[in-house]
Structure formats: C-alpha cells, structure tokens
Amino acid sequence: MIRSLSASLLVCLLAVPAFAQDISVRSGEHGSFTRLALDIPADLVWRLEQVEAERVTLHFERDGLRFDTSAVFDRIDQSRIRTLTPSAAGDALQIDLSCRCVADAFTLKGRMLVLDILPGTFAPTPQIVEAPAEEPVQRGGAMTGLLDIRVGQNPGIGPDPSGLPLLPAFMPTQREALTAPAPEPDLEPGRFEQMLAEQLATAATDGLLKPAVRDLPKAAPIPDGHAPPTGIHADPPGGAHLPGSIEATLAGRDPDDLQAHVRIGGIACVSASDLDVASWGSETTFDELIPELRSRLYGEFDRLDEEIMLAMARAYINIGFGAEARALLDLAQDRNEPVLMALAAIVDGRPDRTGVFAGQTSCDGPAALWAVVGSTTLPDSAQIDANAVLRAFEELPLQLRELLGPNLATRLAEEGQPDAARGVISRLARATGDHSDDMRFSEARISQLEGAVEDAQALLGEIAARPGPNAAEAVAASIEIATEHGSAIGTRMTDLSAAYSTELRDTDQGPDLWLANIRALAANAQYEEAFTALQENPKYPEETRAKAVTDALEILTDHAADPSFLKQTVGNPRRFDGLAKPAAALAVSGRLLQIGLPDAARAWLEFEGIDRAARETRVLKARIQLARGEPEEAEIGLIGLQGEDVLRLRAEARRMMGDFEYARNAFETLGETRRAEAAAWLAGDWAALEAQGGTLGAAAALADSSPLDFGGPPSLAIAESLAGSAEETRSTLRALLDETRLPEP
Hints:
alpha+beta, 745 residues
C-alpha cells in the first residue's frame, strides 16, 4: 500500500514541468512613459507583439510560467495600462492599454525583460519585436558602488540609474536613447561641471549630502617637462578650477528655496492621481461637504480622524482656502503630506518652498502646471510642457482657475511662453464670461515682456484709473515701465503713487508704492521731494531702498540742471554709500568731473561695491587725477590698459610732465592735429611744425630762421631786404596773435 502511494506521488511530481517558475512583474512611472520589469531566466526567449491599438502581448517559448502581477498597480495608475492578464497555459502575458500608446521592450543584463509603454500612434500592421540575440548597448557604464563617482557621458554619484530600470531615467526615454546618435566619448568640461554640481545639489537636498564650502588645497607644482594632468582634477579651459567652481555653485544656492535646486534622476513627476483637485469637491463643497466633514473630524475620546482630516484639507484646496488646509494638516504632526502642503501654499499665492514640484515643468501631467505656478524663477535649462499646463488648467475647478489663472499666465510669460500665457487668459475669459482686472493686469505684464510697452501702459492706465484691488499695483507697474524706458510719467500717475504710498505704507505693497512714488517725483523734476522721501523710510527692505536711490540718482544725473544736480550730490554723498549701485555712482562721478569738481568726483568713486580694478573705474580715476594735477599717479594707474581713450590720457599726462615729444607723437597717432601742433610748439620741434604749414608752421619757420648776414657795408639792397623781412615777420606775428586770441567774455 505504501509502495503504491509512493509510486503515485512520484508520477504526480514528474508530471510538473521541470522549468515551471514564478516571474515577478514590477512597475514604475517615468513621467512620459510607464515601465514594467520582469525577472526572467537568462535563456528564456520572448517575443513582443502588438496587433491591436489597445493590446500588447508578451509571448515566451515556454509554458507553465506563473506571473505575479499583484503589486503592479501599487506604483502606477491606470492611465496607460488598464489590466495585465496571464494566459491559461502560462506562456504569455496580455497587457490591455488605456491610452494611444506603443510598446518597446529590451533585455537588461540578460536577466530582466523591460517593457516600456510610450505615447505614440499605433500602425495597422502587426508590430512584433523579437528578443535580441545580444544584450543592447547600455546607457551608462557598469554598476558602481554607492560612493563611486561616474564620469563620461552619464556622470553622477552612486549606481548608474540606467541599471535600475524602475528608477526615473536620467537620459531621455528608452526609445529616444536607442535611436539617438552616440555622444562623443569625452564630455565637455563645462557640461560635466554643471551636471555634477546639479547632482551634488540634488543629493544634498534629499539629505544624502551636506555641502561644506572650504578652501581647497593648492595643487602640487608640475615638474618641468611633464604634461599637466588630464583627469577630472585638471583645470578646464578658461582657467576656472573645476572643484572650486562646483563648490561655488553649491554655495550660491538658497538653502531655503528648494525650487532653485535642479533635480536630476531619482525624482519622478507627482502622479496625476495625487493632483486630481477637481475630484476633491463639488459645487456644494463649501455649504455641505466641509460642514459634514468637520462634524466627523474628531471621533471617540476626541481622537483626530486623519482620513477625514485629509479629505477636509483637499476640500479646502479645491475651493482655494490654502491657509485653512495648512492649519488642518498641521493637526497631524506625525503625518507628512508634502504634496498637499505645497498645493495649500500655491493656492494662497505663495511659492512652493518645499520643492515638491521642483524640476517637473516638463512633465506631461498636471505636475507641470503646479511646478510653473509654484515657482518664482526657473533654471535656464528648464523645459516647460505648455500643452500639459494648458490641459491641467482646463481640468481645474472654476474657482481655482480664477484664482491661479492670472499668476500662471504671468509666470509663463516670464519664462518665455507668451503664447501659452495668452492661452490661459483666453480660456479663463471664456469660462467666466468676463475680462477681470486680474486678467488685464496679467495681459499688461505679458505685453511688457514681449516689448509692447505702449499696449502695456494703456492697459495699466485703465486699471489704475478706477478703484479696484489691482489699481495700486497697476500704478507701481506703470511707473516701473516708464522708468525703465525713460518715458514721461503724468501728473495724475504721480499723484496716485503719492496717495497709495501713504495709504498702504504699512501693507505688503507699501515698499513698491514708495519706490514708485520716488521714481515718479524724480521723473517730474521734483528732485527735492524725491530725495527727501528717500530719507523718510529707512524701515523698508534694503533692496527696495537701493533701487529707489539708484533710480533717483540716474534720473538726476541724466536730466537735472547743474544747480539741482550739485545740491543733491555734493553736500553729503555718504548718505548714498552702500545703497547706490556702482553704475549710478560712476555716472554721478563722471558728471561732477565734467562740471569741473574733481574732488567731489573722487568721493563718489570711493563708494562701496565699485570694482577698483575694472577698466571703467581706472580710466575715470585717471581723468580725476589729471584734473587734480597728478599726472604721475594717472599714468601709473593706466599701466596695462590699451585703447585710444587710454592713449589720450597718457599723452595729456606726459604733456603735463613736460614730455612734449611723446605727447606730440601720441596726438598725431590719434589724429588730433591741433593738440599735436601745440605739443610740438612747446617741445620746440620747429621742423615738424614747418612741415604742417599754416600759421604755426610760418611762425616756426620764423623762429628757426638764421639772422641776416650783411656780408659788407650797408647798401640799398640790404635795406630793402630788411624792410621785407620785417613786414613778413609782423604779418606772421599778427596772424599768430589773431589765431590764439582768447574769446571775449
């Protein structure tokens, strides 16, 4: 009996295929595509087939495979992949799609099958991809340790993300990577520096590194006859030391503004399901949903129901109540909801300081919208998916479109997307059936950025002319545009700026309106009032005060009469030191020197922030020293400079020091004939003056002539010669006196 049972059990075991194996199916979102990864045996042959627009099938040469798909939708939504269905025989996996997509597959390191679902148009003919005979070319080098530094075409720190298919790709999508031409083997030094600095900043942001700026050790001297190193420690072209430049890049980032950190690799776009704001409320959110949720917020023993709290916070965000949403989220201090906190700040008109949406302006989902509207500035290399932004904007509830639309349009225009900005305004106008002042103000900003100054000024004038929430801001913006372009500022706009500056002085708009009022006063030649107002508000931010001082001084220097100019710049110039920008201080110094006040000009040249080694500063200082009778100091200060203006100053310095020969040659080189003649006269170079001709040439010939030799007793011929010579001498002297006569007062 036992022997019979053992035989039966052996038969059952032999009936199971020897190669039966579990295959785990994992998933990951990569922004522009969705990726599936299957761990397969090294010798398993597969085939990808797409014969329908919404169905892809993976065929395998074996049957009896068991596919574990239980965790696939834990990490991805169903926007691209609807279902995964293993075949009954276990030799295929059917993927049903929910988008207009195509499939691409490849084998990674021989043991992982990677399937990418990418946006694309399905061709009507069957699409079949056979398993490649060899492993495809990888996008980076071999796997490295966590502390290794990778250089070459995919630089960075730690393992190469191309070896981890479920991480967001550092390079473009797999389809693009396989079809793109191979890059040059050596990465441009400047590009390597930028990419490595950005990844270091990302690592520091994620808490993996803490950047510390320190003095780098000096490089050891290179022995004679040895070539300099060519590795990562060699100096790049231009003399900038690579590690030092990286540390400077890290030190220049604002640690409190995570939007300024460029994210590369390891950070995916926030999914659309986490940003489905429209589903968080309805038309009765404020009247019914929020009161109902509030009644259930605390349960037995006054215990906070966190799920109700999250639902209520989302409802507040849906209607634009960001402060209330943040207050709710703060109740559960042990729970971290960075996405909701970022959204709550943005709907309140504040930037995303958490960095949740940093680097996501190129996402093809709603994250692109929140990344744009939640930023103050973007890196120069940032790409914006304008179509994704507009799609996401259309899907927002109407109250959020009204709240975010004008600011979103302005930010798009500021980042070089004027067409998308106007698209936001037109969509909002159609949805609301109105063209509000907020929209007009945003349109004015768009026109200003496009260079249509007159259109911008006309729109701002309309907004400022009538009471409204944007009137004061329109006044400040109009005056700012006029100041930048040197346009006139009307009396009405000046009066409005004074009234708003007083009325709103203790609000957030106070500094900007104070600045606008000073600009308007200076532009209307009310210099006394403008500079008096500069001293009355030292409590405003230093940046605003610096702008006010600089703009007022520039307007004063360019347009004021000498008495008004001197009254504000000579009496107590130190009151502007530390506030006036270097360009404004140099302009004031130059005009003071032109008026004939070199001592006053020198005082402005010593202001804080002026680069003493700059060419413009050195030339102006030499001019001041010449005006003060210090030619030796002037010539020393010009050492190393070139140019006609420098040669002219050197010639004047040499003339003042008595080197008339050098001065004559220099003025001749510059083509300044009269000054060259004057220098030759002072140098006694009669031959050079005779060659020039003219009155000075005749006088030089007279001075260089020899006395008459009578050669014997006086005669009538000698007398006639003396008379003629005397007449010629008198004529030459008379012409010389007439030519050098001073003008009558």
